[in-house]
Amino acid sequence: MNSQELPAVTNPEEPESVLPAGRSLYLEVFINDASTKLIGNFTEMPGGGLAATPEELKGVGLKPPEGVADAGGLVRLDQLADVSFQVDEATQRLYVTAADDSREARIVDLGLRLQEDRPAPQSGLGAVLNYSLFASSNSLFDKDVELFQGVSGGFDARGFSPYGTLSQSFIAGYSDGRLGGFTRLNTTWSYSDPDRLMTYRAGDFISGGLSWTRPVYLGGIQAQRNFHLRSDLVTLPLPSFAGTAAVPSTLEVYTQNVRTYSGDIQPGPFQVTNLPVFTGAGQAQVVLRDSLGRETTATLPFYASSMLLRQGLLDFSVEAGMARRNFGISSDDYDGRVMGVATARYGVTDRLTLEAHAEGGADLINGGIGAAFPLGAYGAASLAVAGSHHDGRTGSLVDARAEFGYDGWAVNARMQRAFGGYDDIASVTAQPVILDPDDFTRFSAGVPRAVDQVTLSVPMPIDFSSLNFSYTHLKDAEGETL
């Protein structure tokens, strides 16, 4: 684009002139008697008239219609609806009169400020040890009992370099004069690529998953999208606001009564995008104030949900390895069968996010698809279906979720049903549990046959706290209600 910014100028009277044909002109553009502070590249057409590329017209604030460009890729200005123009050849200025519908809206992207403040990633050499210790004694006053009974602790050691981070965590104890109870937890090497927003792991990790799947501990390799590497990147769709300024004005944006943006705006249509919000229900106010202090205020209710991804964003993870069992009890208890997992979410539009998940290995095939979508400005919902086949057994799963919010009130609901012999990696690789009638109750590792949950959050009138009510109904894989 050849449009260039200019300093502020005074608009003279609009003269008329006639242009000779076949010239390329660089003209300062005025729209509705206001300078755009831009220079546009225009071509004088045979027989009179001006033309420019669609990109050039958008750059100076005009909206070209679709599919009207000629063989040279130019759009004539006299083909623009509700647009008239005059040229002052002496001052090299183009005066345009255009309706708001024929003008390209100026984009005020509030997310650009976060990108400008984003620090550059750095790497170095070092190590760190995190630990927590616990000691106990039977009695401080009984002389017949040994005062010190033992000590236990949890440890997390990490060494980092430009080539990644190696971490090792474990728990250990000391009692009766000897070291005991050593249990390895995680041994993992990880490397993060901030340019590609990717994290790679080898060792122990938790597989990727969705709200309707069950992630598992694996020992193997993983490649995963990691949006946390960009602190300025907001993954959920953000509300936007469109309006028109008749005169030069000041634009202010308030989110939950906190001013999040203030700046000048030129006359014409504008669109405020990437309003900074939090998840859940809320309101944003857009205030337009002219030089005389007159204000125009618009209130925009919104609902931001982590169920949704912004248009064009892809979130995924791919893993392969052996399922780990008895984590925190045994150091090296892995199922001997290799399993694979793949999970993906894609923002088709800001109003539709598609989901897919597949896992399998060792005679297990499991896969499903889902979709998440907003419910107006007050909620969001998701639906998913999945199926599996293992050891001659076939089953299916259905999951539905919805969340609503308004004026501090919030409702979350979930319903999940499993049919037939539905299995996943967690149920296939879990060790069989023999229940002793006299022993305590243990939860089954199988996929629950039914899960129903409802949560209600009520705002308190005297402070910023809330009162929560929750109902859960669970029927395990054996059909017992818990």
Would you mind describing this structure in some detail?
It contains 3 helices and 29 strands. It is mainly β and 482 residues long. A 15-stranded antiparallel beta sheet has the order 9-10-11-12-13-14-21-22-23-24-25-26-27-28-29. A hairpin with a 2-residue loop joins strand 22 and strand 23.
Beta-strand residue fraction:
over 45%
Structural class comes to mainly beta
Q: Count the strands? A: 29
Unreliable residue runs = 4-21
Itemize the secondary structure elements and their pairings.
Blueprint: E1 4-5, E2 24-31, E3 34-44, E4 50-52, H1 54-60, E5 75-76, E6 83-88, E7 93-98, E8 106-109, H2 112-116, E9 126-136, E10 150-161, E11 164-175, E12 178-193, E13 198-206, E14 217-225, E15 241-245, E16 249-255, E17 258-265, E18 268-273, E19 280-290, E20 295-304, E21 314-324, E22 334-349, E23 352-361, E24 364-374, E25 379-390, E26 393-406, E27 409-420, H3 425-429, E28 450-459, E29 466-475
Parallel strand pairs: 2-7, 8-18
Antiparallel strand pairs: 1-3, 2-3, 3-4, 4-5, 6-7, 9-10, 10-11, 11-12, 12-13, 13-14, 14-21, 15-18, 16-17, 16-19, 19-20, 21-22, 22-23, 23-24, 24-25, 25-26, 26-27, 27-28, 28-29
